[in-house]
Amino acid sequence: MLRKTLKKTTKNKKLNDFIKKYKIPPEYLSGNRKMISRGVFLGLFIAFIPMPMQMAAVLLFVPFFRFNVPIALAMCWLSNPFTMPPMYYMEYLTGSYILGIEPKPVELTLEWFSENIDDIFIPLYFGTVLYSVIGSTVGYFIVNHFWRSSVHKEKSSRKKK
Cα(70)–Cα(90) distance, rounded to whole angstroms? Predict the structure, then answer.
């Protein structure tokens, strides 16, 4: 269903006029499987990284890779003000566990964070790399799987008619 909606959207006259007016490369808004799955991959990869301005980081990849930019921007909002604390805490705990470091009790204050950044930085980013790579790869394959199964169901329903 999402696939059909994206196909209709990319054929929208207003959208195509907007693309032509502002000279946006159409592949950045393309609704095909490759571009959508790449957008999901990049957006999820950046979403797990604790850093400010994640949307700007997505846009930094535009000159180097072809992907659906709106999808990537939407995926990076997986980490929002409500989900950031549990995500980053889980990354810190995972990194500490893998590195064999005893995790410190965490207080959600800027003072605690600034005092302990040296102690939590390496475990946090080690966990971040793990979750970024695994989460984005899983997201990529899930999109591909559901896209292909959607195409297969559509083809088999056409054959039955």
Answer: 27
Distance between CA atoms of 46 and 54, rounded to whole angstroms?
6
Chain-centre distance of CA 89, in angstroms? 19
Residue 43 CB neighbour total at 10 angstroms: 26
CA 35 to chain centre: 13
Half-sphere exposure of 101 (CA within 13 A, CB side): 17
* Residue with tokens 């800027």, as numbered in its chain: 110
Is 113 in a helix, a strand, or coil?
Answer: helix
pLDDT in tens, 41-98: 999 999 999 888 999 999 999 888 889 888 999 999 998 889 988 998 999 999 999 9
Helix and strand totals (H; E) in the chain:
7, 0
